[in-house]
């Protein structure tokens, strides 16, 4: 696909995600009792309504800012799981599930095209714990060192562990 088409598809899919997140967060606050009733009917605890609303507001900010790679990855993964649960809940309850299905389709599109259109964010919110060691030299060296160390350690540990009980 051309760069222009990628941008259009990315922003359209991201716009849908941002709309779904904002609509849900707003409705969780504005019509809380109705939404809590849906949660209860779907088999989910009602105490999740407000925390989920605030997490969706944070998700909107993370996606729009596109600043931290690890947070962006977590937001997309969490919202994908949220859409899977929403889709299952709506289908089981016999309710309209179009919005959940659309969300489930556009999330991977937005995520994958986001790296091409906006680039991958270079910062990590959680620092060293989530840094991406994807440089060519580091990956090869780390893999070789880890394999050698793990093999030696596993051999020694297996011998010692055979006589110990958990």
Beta strand count: 0
What percentage of amino acids are in beta strands?
under 5%
Count of domain modules: 1
Helix content: over 70%
**Radius of gyration from CA coordinates:** 22 Å
Determine the number of helices (DSSP H or I, runs of at least 4 residues): 6
Q: What gross morphology would you assign? A: globular
What is the average per-residue confidence, as pLDDT, rounded to a whole number? Answer: 82
What does this structure look like?
The chain has 166 residues and is mostly helical. It has one domain (3-127). Helices cover 77% and strands 0% of the residues. It is built from 6 helices and no strands. Helix 1 runs antiparallel to helix 3 (49-65) and helix 1 packs across helix 5 (98-117). The longest helix has 28 residues, at 3-30.
């Amino acid at each position: 696909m051309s760069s222009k088409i990628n941008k259009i598809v990315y922003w359209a899919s991201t716009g849908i995600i941002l709309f779904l997140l904002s609509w849900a967060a707003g409705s969780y606050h504005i019509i809380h009792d109705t939404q809590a009733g849906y949660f209860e009917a779907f088999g989910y605890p009602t105490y999740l309504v407000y925390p989920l609303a605030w997490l969706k507001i944070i998700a909107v900010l993370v996606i729009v800012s596109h600043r931290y790679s690890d947070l962006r990855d977590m937001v997309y993964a969490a919202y994908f799981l949220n859409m899977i649960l929403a889709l299952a809940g709506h289908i089981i309850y016999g309710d309209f599930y179009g919005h959940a299905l659309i969300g489930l389709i556009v999330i991977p599109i937005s995520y994958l095209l986001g790296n091409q259109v906006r680039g991958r964010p270079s910062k990590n919110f959680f620092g060293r714990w989530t840094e991406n060691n994807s440089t060519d030299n580091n990956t090869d060296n780390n893999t070789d060192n880890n394999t050698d160390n793990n093999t030696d350690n596993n051999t020694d540990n297996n011998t010692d562990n055979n006589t110990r009980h958990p």
